[in-house]
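Feature request, filed as a ticket because there's no other form

It would be nice if the structure record came with a short human-readable summary line next to the tokens. Right now we just get the raw output. Example of a typical job, pasted below so the devs can see what we mean:
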Amino acid sequence: MLYEVQNLATSKELLGADYPNVLIRISNLAINYWSQNRFEEAEQLALQIVDISKAVLGVEHPRTLYRVRILALTFQSLGKLKEAEEMQLEVQEIQGKILGARHPETLTTMANMAFAHRKLELWYVAEVLSLEVLETSREILGVNHPNILSSMHNLAHVYKGRGRKADAIQLIRTVIDLRTQTIGATHSHMLNSINSLNVWLESEEE
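Raw output as currently delivered:
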């Protein structure tokens, strides 16, 4: 990591921060910081790279959108949920215009926005977004695709947050049944769903 930081500093000095290869190195270093839970350092680099990318490549360039997503993820990790939501909304609007509302990347951004709203406990908006992602994904991918099951799992948590516990339990049980058929009982996603169900059932007994 030290070599990477020193190499980046040298490249910035020689080539400038807006040189394409330097931009890529800054992005990679931000991701490395994030993966090591060094979120403040990741945030500093992500803010820098987003500003430069917008100025050099434009706000609609795929690499700019990718870097905005990195920044949103970093904000989310720091608990800056409002800022994360704003970044995700920015990406969603641009992707929807360029790629269309049914494109997988647009749906991924919408799912991230739904998660951000869950964290903010803005349950109604989270439900609207989650349902839209689920319904559109079903039309594109089919009912048993892993992404569909993840969307259903997430929607169950939204139902739980909205106080619709019976709906949440019913939906998570459906997810468990489908995941049993597709990924097996020991997969981490399956274990997450089982854990959610167990926690919700235990809280019913209290």
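Something like this underneath would help us a lot:
Residues 1-98 form a domain with the Serine Threonine Protein Phosphatase 5, Tetratricopeptide repeat fold (CATH 1.25.40.10).
The chain has two domains: 1-98, 110-206.
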